[in-house]
Each structure stands twice: as C-alpha cells, then as structure tokens.
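Thread: "does anyone have the structure for this chain?"

Original post by V.I.:
We have the sequence but no experimental structure in hand. Need at least a predicted one for the grant figures.
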Amino acid sequence: MSELSNQKCEACRADAPKVTDQELAELMKMIPDWVPVPRDGIMQLEREFKFKNFKLAMAFANQVGELAEAEFHHPSILLEWGKVTVTWWTHKINGLHKNDFICAAKTDELLD
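Reply from O.Q.:
Generated one for you, tokens below.
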C-alpha cells in the first residue's frame, strides 16, 4: 500500500488550497502512471486503464464508483470497450487537492 492510499479524503471547502507546483511534483512521484492534464483551465489527474473486454472494464468502472462513494469524492469515469479512463479533480476548487492524489492511489490499488 502506498502512503497516499492509506489516507482518507477530507471534506473540501471552496476556499481549500489547490496543490502548489512543488506539491504537484512530489505527489506525482507517488502515482507515476497518472498524468496531470489541464482541461478548460482546470488541472486534473487522468489515467487510462486497459482490459481484455468490455465486461472487465465495466467491473473496474463499478469498483471506481464504489471507491468514490466510500471517499465521498467523485471522478469522471469514461467506460469504453476494453478501456476505462478515470479523471480526478476537485470541483469545489476547480483544480487539484490532495484528495485527488489519495483517490488516484486508491484507484491504482483496485488492480491488485
């Protein structure tokens, strides 16, 4: 288990601080398969997961949904044949919060 995946998401307010560039660099080392992506001026974390078929991809997408409900932090989940793209960001602050990195690490562990 990674250090991040052992943590829980904290309730986030609209005035919560976004991660700094230095924090982003450090946190990215803990989730190397994720990519920070600016989309419409909002920094997001994204990773594509590949599967042998649609059924396996759908099962994984459902696991991500269960994780999101448990953490009360919800990503964008794109389900396609043999592929699931998960995108984490914090809507309230229009950017990245430590919660996004925690959830990305927990998403990675769903594959174990």
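V.I.: this helps a lot. The two ends are 10 Å apart (CA to CA).
O.Q.: and Residues 14 and 40 are 18 Å apart (CA to CA).
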